[in-house]
Amino acid sequence: MPVLGEETPGGGGAESPRAETEAAGSAARPRRGGVLPLCANPRCASGWLRLWRPRQTPVFEGGWLCGAACTRAAVLAAVAREMDGRQEEPAPHRHRIPLGLMLVSQGAISPEQLKAALCRQKASGGRLGMWLRREHGVEERVVTRALAAQWGCPVLLLGNHSPAKMASLVPRLFLDIFGVLPLRQAGARLLYVGYADGIDRCVDFAIERMTGLRVVAGLVDGAEFARAHGRLLEEAFPPARLIEAASRDALAASFTRILEASKPAESRLVRIRDYYWLRMWRQRPGTDARLDAVEDVLGSLAGPGC
Ligand SMILES: [Zn+2]
Asked: The CATH number of 163-233 is which of 3.30.300.160, 3.40.50.1820, 3.30.70.2120, 2.40.110.10?
């Protein structure tokens, strides 16, 4: 029989790995009746105790959900949170000094070389660094160092790149779309990611919220980046499904169906630019999520006005 208990705000405690990482807002906080968890949907009418239900999953963002209607309510709240949470994203980076001027000031190129490279770029497109390398023999590492100074980030080396472990952290699609390369994990808390041309703070932010790891982003020399990217793509990535929906309701309905069918022991939703990234764990996640224990669903909204 349903039993109603006192709601303890933010009482996820040991039930919720999210409570430790503070990975995403306040939606779908797990509730407890005394020491026993209740359905995480704050508007749940059943008052079911998890203990008395044969159903122990799905768990979404640290909260157990008693039925499909409550799963849908929790997912809809999370989709709305992600959709409306654009102000949480880091502000776009503004370079203080253009790359060309920085290279001139460092004595790496002459003003004439810069002028010629800018003309080539204007006529043929491409990146300034590419033309400086191709037409004026500027070394790649010199351009990368100057880019890193522009972005205020480190130049990262690939010494301990561990592709097999990194492949479980981010869906393969994101490597191609966002040009991000997970490089290595340091200890239990830190994740180094590399980019070839510039840092995408929004991508870093989403990876932090999903993995609970603090992301340190830096630039990697182009040739090294391409080599490491190729090595990573040879690895097996977690299975991923792509879904497209016409509205936030339809997107929430699709995620709900998948959660109800997959019954994950934990799942989280974050938005990464135009993608809603739902990750499901068969077992409750640690920072070393195993490849075979994770599944990704990447949702996007189609059509104008979404
Ligand atoms: Zn419920």
From this structure: 3.30.300.160
Query: Is the model's pLDDT at 262 over the cut of 70?
Result: yes
Q: Measured in angstroms, how far is the CA atom of residue 66 from the centroid of ligand 1?
A: 4
Q: Give 204-248 pLDDT, tens digit per residue.
A: 999 999 999 999 999 999 888 999 999 999 988 989 999 999 999
Q: 243 CA to middle of ligand 1, Å?
A: 26
CA of 48 to the centre of ligand 1 (A): 7
pLDDT at 103 over 70: yes
Residue-range domain boundaries for the chain: 17-84+238-301, 99-151, 163-233
Distance 68 CA to ligand 1 centre (A): 8
Alpha carbon distance 224, 228 (integer Å): 6
Q: Ligand 1 centre from 42 Cα, in Å? A: 8
Residues 252/76, Cβ–Cβ less than 8 Å: yes
Give the pLDDT confidence score for residue 223 in this predicted structure: 86
Spell 71-106 as b/e; 16+ CB within 10 A means b: bbbbbbbbbebbeeeeeeeeeeeeeeeebbebbbee
Confidence class for position 290, pLDDT limits 50, 70, 90: low
pLDDT given at position 13: 33
